[in-house]
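Deliverable D5.2: sample structural annotation.
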Amino acid sequence: MVRVPIGQRIRERRRRAGMAQAALAKVVDISPAYLSLIEHDKRYIGGKLLRRIADALELELDYLTADQDSRLVEALMELSAGSGLEGLDADSAASLVGRYPEWARAFIKLNRNLQDATETALALSERLSRDPELMALSHLMLTQITSVRSFSEILAEHDDLDTAERRRFAGIIASESDALTSSARAVIDTLEHSGDAFRPTSPSREVDDFIIDNRNYFAPIEAAAAALRGELGAERILSEAALTERLSTRHGIRVEHGQAPCARDASAARLVLAEGAASSTVRFRLAQRLCRLEFAELFGEVVETARVTSEEARVRVLQALARYAAGALLLPYLAYLESAEELRYDLEALGARFGVSFEQAAHRLVTLREPGNEGIPFAFLRADPAGNISKRFSIPGLRMPEFGGACPRWPIYTAFSAPDQIVSQLAAIPGGARYLFIARRVTKPSTVHGRPTTVFSVMLGCDAHHADRIVYGDAYSSRRDSVISRVGFECRSCRREDCEQRVHPQIFRQASARPVEAAHAPPAEMAPPSGQDREEALAHDH
């Protein structure tokens, strides 16, 4: 994991507050020498000491923990890889983010705008070459142009035509010209309509950024969901009957079973549930609609904090919050966290205990981020068989790809060939860090004849040092090299030279013959403290 230097932030804020180094050191109970090492980014800290420094300087802890900044560093590195830029390393990216985070965000946004524009241009090019409507219009225009040219040549080359023939040919030319004008306008209208699809920033990416910036945890929604669950008098599994009754009596929503529409109106006076849908799906849809109605004002307040640039992005944020609230309602925070620890994060057992699907159980684990009462920090990724990523949540050190597909050696892809099985992997990424991956294929069968089944793969990932707390980690308890899979993030930026599944050429080359893991080891100056500093670190960082 690349760490963002925060010492400079501490030093600048201390100086701005007019506090001497010795004074701050006394307040937080460390030596001035050790504080000097911290301010010069020679010592990385965390835990209680970091919290004391934040409190002493009246800073938000997030400003110093730099979790968001770490994600900025990872985004910059992915940007550089995808753009073919050489000579950029994680340390320089971390320095940029540490000193000028807003400039880093600006670079990332500009790259996204460029990528969106490129994708739009490619889509329009593809449409020009393959769209049946445009092809038909093009053929019609060529026919009309040929007709105009032919009759014009007759008039130009034959002086012996009588007046009636000339008038007839001129009328044909005028008629074909009018038709050609109409065809040209149709082409222009079609292209202009297509151009409306271009957005400076993708709404889905804005939603992802919003969720990640909030660590996928929303305390006000958790509190509201807990209160509502108390009113419903729910046992461990919140019943379909209780949800339906609340929708009917409190909001006048009529729940029906039948052919569910593809487009769902969140404001409609009825809710149509697909006939034969799984109980977990039905309960989640009921909970989602109920939360949209019960927490509308709260959602509006949360959305106001989101940095979105379009109405579509705002709508998607509301949908994401409704899904989050539904998960919090069906899977209450403390009960689910206690069960997860008891069952050692066995997703099938958790799903059975709370009556939810594999994806619902996995997604809820990612939201257990209450400060001081957290579960294992998981990353989350969902992809379809074509490799398109539809949901992602990164954790520091393990980024979920944004600008392309993930490494094909990740189990999120191998899970497609293992139906109804949970696939696990102990993976070593470039840099030497190890992660435990858990993936499973999930299907959403269609209840309408002729409509295909929707297929995804869902994957969780966490630092390997949590493996002993997870049932899926038991298979890798030996930690032998034979059980470790060497993977990357995505193909273009991957430094592994011995990958048989490489698709894209390697952008970054090793500067020396050192192994990848050794080449990315932290510099000596970042090593743990020694002597008195070591004692102080042990005393204060935990």
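Annotation notes: The longest strand covers residues 434-444. The two ends are 19 Å apart (CA to CA).
The annotation will be released with the project's public dataset once the embargo ends.
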